[in-house]
Specification:
Blueprint: H1 3-7, H2 13-25, E1 31-32, H3 38-42, E2 49-53, H4 57-60, H5 66-69, E3 73-78, H6 83-91, E4 96-99, H7 104-115, H8 123-135, H9 140-147, H10 151-161, H11 166-173, H12 177-191, H13 196-203
Parallel strand pairs: 1-2, 2-3, 3-4
Helix pairs in contact: 2-7, 6-8, 10-12, 11-12
């Protein structure tokens, strides 16, 4: 038994079949996150729409690497979804969340929204996330982190904090996707931060 087998489980078959059917009808190419063979999927350079199943986001969200979350769109299914879970998922860079018993209509809305570069979370979770950011004053830590980055990295960082993907950032700044990835990796190394969500959280008020 490999550690990742214990931590991550696949979306239950009934829901997986339903998502596959709906995404096919919507002509949206989705893949189910699999911690064991994701390296094979990562070799494919096409934009990705990954479906995650997290039984406990508080324990598992941080374990998904930044390299994965910076590629494509990410929709999460959770057995017990609440505002705290949603807020955590937003801060970690996911694009939407659904309960395990989500209706067909909800799945369609979520897939369409995320595919169209919109977040799919409850209004309460989005409000709480925005309000928590406004309440946080600049800290010495944030100032120190900002001082470590270059002007070009800060331009990329601003768009990361807005929830844009690497492809969208590249188009916005008229640079290559590889250059975007290089800037983000440089910021990870300089700041000792290991995920895109944590990077956004650390710099949100800087």
């Amino acid at each position: 038994m490999i550690f990742s087998d214990v931590i991550f489980k696949q979306l239950p078959e009934p829901q997986a079949l339903q998502v596959s059917k709906i995404s096919g009808l919507l002509n949206i190419e989705t893949a189910f996150y699999d911690s064991l063979n994701f390296a094979c999927k990562a070799a494919d350079k096409r934009p990705k729409f990954l479906i995650h199943y997290l039984e406990d986001p508080h324990q598992q969200a941080y374990l998904i690497s930044a390299d994965i979350l910076t590629t494509g769109k990410h929709l999460v299914f959770c057995p017990n979804l609440n505002i705290e879970c949603e807020t955590l998922l937003i801060s970690n860079g996911f694009h939407g969340a659904l309960t395990l018993n989500a209706s067909e209509v909800e799945i369609i809305e979520a897939l369409k929204s995320v595919n169209n570069n919109k977040l799919y979370f409850s209004n309460d979770a989005m409000s709480r996330y925005i309000q928590s950011k406004k309440r946080q004053p600049n800290t010495q830590r944030q100032i120190e982190l900002l001082s470590l980055t270059t002007k070009k990295e800060q331009r990329v960082l601003t768009l990361v904090c807005q929830g844009l993907t690497n492809d969208e950032i590249a188009a916005n700044l008229e640079i290559s996707v590889n250059t975007v990835k290089m800037h983000i990796q440089n910021m990870f190394k300089k700041t000792k931060i290991s995920s895109r969500g944590q990077l956004s959280y650390a710099f949100a008020q800087a």
